[in-house]
Amino acid sequence: MSDAASRLRRLAAFFSKGLLFLATALSLVAVLLIILYIARDAIPFFKLRGLKELFASASWFPSGHPPEFGALAIFIGSGLVTLGAIVVAVPLGVAAAIALSDILPYRLRQAVKPVIEILAALPSVAYGFFALVIFAPLLQNRGGSLLALAAWLIALPLGLLLIFVITEIVTRRVREDVAQAARLILAATLVVILVRGLLALSSLLGRVAISSGTNALNVSIILGIMALPTIVSVAEDSLQAAGRELREGSYALGATRAETLFKVVIPAAGSGIIAAVILGVMRAIGETMVVWMASGNAAQIPSPWFNFLSPVRTLTATIAGDMGEADQVLGSERYHVLFALALCLLLTSFIANLASEWILRRQQRRLGGLK
Amino acid sequence: MELQARKLFDRSLTGVSIMAILLMSLSLLVLLGPIFSRGAGAFVFRATNEFRRLNLEQFNRGDAQAIAEETRAVSEARKPVYEMLSAFEAELADMDASRRRELRPQLKEIKNLLRELLGSLPGEIEAVMLRQQYGQTRWDRARYKLGQILFREQWDYSDKRSMGKKVLTPRRQDFAGTRLEPLFTYLERNLKQLLRPRLTFYWRFLTDRSLDSHFFGGIWPEILGTFYLTLGAMLLAIPFGIIAAIYLSEFASSGRVTSLLRVCISTLAGVPSIVFGLFGLAFFINTLHLSRSKSVLAGSATLALLILPTIIRASEEALKAVPHTYKEAALSLGASPLRMVLTVLLPAALPGILTGIIISMGRAAGETAPIIFTAAVSVGQPLKLWETLSQPTPALPWNIYNLATEHQAVDEIRHVQFGMVLTLVLLVLLLNLAAILIRARVSKKMRG
To answer: What residue segments make up the domains of chain B, in order of their start?
Structure first.
């Protein structure tokens, strides 16, 4: 091959690599542009109205005279539904991830995977439609009995588990020959107390009247289900990444599967699970359609703050709902305040993403070091 | 004893985690069940004579002669209804004033309901709105309207402690002794003769344009709009996505720049979809002026950014899964790296890349928030291909939202809403099924 041809070839390779790099850099450019353009339209708002009003006041009247832009209630609304989604999704998601990585046999696992994929693939507007058209009327008409049912479903298994642990701890010191009887008696009394308590609770809940089905509870449950696939798949990945060696070592020492999980696998995969939770939570915070359709969109702070039965309004729903009108008055405060809200949302997502990325990488390095 | 406790603890963990899986599967079933069962109602339902008449007159569809005959029979059956109405009106004029004052508004209400049930009354000027020209096209809606005619709905708020209770009083009582009294029995007994319901498979729901803002007709403009938006997004995102994946998996050194790129990709994946929408508005429309206002082009560009990370990740995974030996064999034969990528690597990774593309297609089709400000309108005609550059379009996800919350008669067009949701969900599910099948084939091939 001649010298010139080889140089030409090298040049071509260099250029093609450069072109590939440029196309790859589109993501970088996109992220920069998003920050730039959201910030560019958000800054005029802060210049005009300062920071204090947005974060400290709860009166949101963007179309009033004079307009007020206190978004505290909106931030609290976002926080509340996210909290609710965490309560729904984290225990369920982590338990499901454990089942997928350690408990179910291979065939069943393959059967469950599509369920997660479908949950992840369903469009958010379909979830929102379900929440608004099916779930909200159900909550409104049968809210009390639904709450009671949920209380039974959650509290009964967990309560039985707790009773079991308590009886074990209490009777540990008792003499062997009476221990069995003592354990039985203790467990029976506790079960009676649990059932009595649950009965009282469910009759209390059964009387709860939900005045509107579009409220924070509805949205929290749906958002929790939407966040599930993210949490399950990321958490499962990191549980898997903990590796066979660790598990087998633990089994060899005589530990049961539960002990292996809690004392070995989860400590090793813990940071990955945290990253999974962060990513799942971000999905809940950033979700628009469900909260827009089914949260009630009332810009008020629920009283007391944890009242999940009151309607709330979130950041994303405010942006989606108000832009339709603010669009007409381009460049006004009403327009810019929505970009200010979007900037808050964007910064939250950046921080959460970087955090989860950092956590996952650290875990990778640590587990890599273990092997 | 200690051992037994440990075993029990182990079992309960198994129980709890399996319960979580069951709960997750159950929630999927609960979610999809009503969407499928009620969504099917948009396609298969008992259509009335009004439906066939509407199809004939608006879409020029169906056997004109048979329908004319049926319409004649139906109007024969309706005659007594109208006769009773006019007889009662004559009677009303002779009643004493207080009774008249009491019954006149009720008569007006009944006439309105009858218009909704059977279409405009004889002798009236043809209404402008299509929904006033035709009666109920669906048997289930007709039954519901009949209920409204038979019973007056009132709310009882006498118990201050609980919410108001619904009380139904038969209208027959209100009109007892008048010449309108037999109307209610007649309607109840002869509703079938009045409307002639017949089980119909209306597959044209997918391909019909909508009439009178979705009171009648199908959802073709929305389907077409979703198709355009998805297609545009894929055209823009696929080349960049695959190139980026090739660069990252084959050419990138593991330096700072590369890790910055990777961070950017995952950051882009985490940006909330509504922020994409705002960005699309601020950048593509207000700054670049891709179009004067919303357009399919701007929406597609926004969606393309949204799905770019998904495509990059999936393609990179697929490229990395290709065995090293393939590449090394190609390189050792003297192929340049670029040529190796094009002739060996890409074909081998193609099914995996395809899977990623199909899944992100489902995502692009179903996203609503990014197109609210950039592409979607509530009402619109099907677009021609070149119009997508400058015109906004209706789209399935946006119109589901719009019909379910902002439409003037949300309750009356539930079947259209459910039909739309079912269409969108089925679209996404089919895409995902395709992806799953491709993946299964690939993994079989890799193992074999």
So the answer is: 47-200, 220-447
